[in-house]
Amino acid sequence: MGEFVRLLIDEPADGAWNIAVDEAILRAASVRWGITTVRLYMWCRPTISAGYFTRLDEELLNRCKRDGIDVVRRLSGGGIVLHDDEVTYSVVFPKSLIGECSVLAAYRLISKGVVIGLRRLGIEARLVCDGLVSADGQDDEVRACKESHKRLSDQFCYAVRSPTDIVVGSMKLVGSAQARCKGAILQHGSVPLRWDEEMLCRLFGNGIIEGRAFTSLEELLLNKPSVDEVVEALCIGFEKAFAQRLQVGMLSEEEINLAIKLMERKWIFRCE
């Protein structure tokens, strides 16, 4: 492992470029082991990203076209995410960085950085799977997550609970997903500054808001923090999680060229 972690802080971009860059970094890292990259980025307009295996409902696609919302396909798993007023993080790191190569071990490492960053903002959050374990050895909230996936048909990521979510109390704040390529792991997730409830209802129906169990930084802090404040907090969190300094860098020529090639494959629907 190197002496520092490469830090990329990107300007807002369209969905296909954002997703393509994450994948390009992962693919490059898979043949250049030992490099860890933390990337923080935003979206230039509201965008839906769908997990690699997620089947998109025709009605949802029609609503996206009606409202001018881009739709892209991620390399990672998980459900449907609406990216809007948020800071997105992605971390690409070698499997050797964690003692075990389990999915959960990787989530714990990256989520530790996010949780520390949230604490800097004044929010006490935790990973769901780090909750209390019941007498049968199963996390009570993990059991609830499995049951909720059976009950809820909505594909919106924040409408369901996963053992790898970051929560504040009973409210979901951060969802994330992973992808792997040879010896490298990508994990990316969304930190919502604010939810546009009208947009959520137009896309997913009014039921998405009724009794919702997800939240945002604005709701928790009673004031929306700036992007710069969130980026700074996350940088501090990842430095502490990795016990290494973050050094601002840039994409390599190889990563840029690969992202350009990948970008057109990421579009499902693009607004003109």
Protein traits:
24% strand; alpha+beta; globular; 8-stranded mixed beta sheet; BirA Bifunctional Protein, domain 2; 272 residues; single chain; 4-stranded mixed beta sheet
Characterization of this structure:
The protein is α+β, with helices and mostly antiparallel strands and 272 residues long. The chain contains eight helices and twelve strands. It has helices at 15-30, 58-67, 103-120, 140-151, 197-204, 217-221, 227-242, 253-266; strands spanning 4-9, 37-41, 47-50, 70-73, 80-83, 86-94, 126-127, 166-168, 171-181, 184-192, 245-248, 267-269. The strands form two sheets. An eight-stranded mixed sheet has the order 7-8-9-10-6-2-1-11, with helices on both faces. Strands 5-3-4-12 form a four-stranded mixed sheet. Helix 1 links the parallel strand 1 and strand 2. Helix 1 crosses helix 8 and helix 3 (103-120) packs across helix 7. It is globular. Residues 132-153 have low confidence and may be disordered.
Give the helix tally: 8
Beta-strand content bin: 15-25%
Highest-level CATH class: Alpha Beta
Cross-sheet strand order for the largest sheet: 7-8-9-10-6-2-1-11
Summarize the structure.
This protein is of the alpha+beta class and 272 residues long. It has a single domain (4-269), classed as BirA Bifunctional Protein, domain 2.
Secondary structure topology:
Elements: E1 4-9, H1 15-30, E2 37-41, E3 47-50, H2 58-67, E4 70-73, E5 80-83, E6 86-94, H3 103-120, E7 126-127, H4 140-151, E8 166-168, E9 171-181, E10 184-192, H5 197-204, H6 217-221, H7 227-242, E11 245-248, H8 253-266, E12 267-269
Parallel strand pairs: 1-2, 1-11, 3-4
Antiparallel strand pairs: 2-6, 3-5, 4-12, 6-10, 7-8, 8-9, 9-10
Helix pairs in contact: 1-8, 3-7
